[in-house]
Amino acid sequence: MKALIIDDELDICYLLSGILKQQHFSTRYVTSLSDAEAALQNDPPSIIFLDNHLPDGLGIDFIQFIKSRYPVSKIIMITAHDSPAEHRRAYAEGVDLFIPKPFTKEKIHSAISQVTA
Questions:
Q1: What is the 3-state secondary structure (H, E, C) of the chain?
Q2: pLDDT (tens digit, 0 to 9) for every residue of the chain, 117 residues total?
Q3: Is the pTM for the entire model greater than 0.90?
């Protein structure tokens, strides 16, 4: 399975990549929404880990773009901005799961199980 990580924090990208590789995922990461758009066109993944606050926009505003063009890709939003309003909006936009930062390896494993079940 393939995963795309969209996060402007490289340490998060490296951490998630390591966790996902232990689960036998092929991983790629990008640090902006514009790079994400290009990555999705070239090789749509099974799972997308999407940060909300990125240099060129909000991940939450990108959910509909992903869902309309790549409906089989599952989206897990990961963000440090963990408010009830953001949860509601993310789910309303079509996110499959919402995980607040910081997260644990176990939380990522559980998230993968939930969205691939």
A1: CEEEEECCCHHHHHHHHHHHHHCCCEEEEECCHHHHHHHHHHCCCCEEEEECEECCEEHHHCHHHHHHHCCCCEEEEEECCCCHHHHHHHHHHCCCEEEECCCCHHHHHHHHHHHHC
A2: 999 999 999 999 999 999 999 999 999 999 999 999 999 998 899 999 999 999 999 999 999 999 999 999 999 999 887 788 989 999 999 999 999 999 999 999 999 999 988
A3: yes
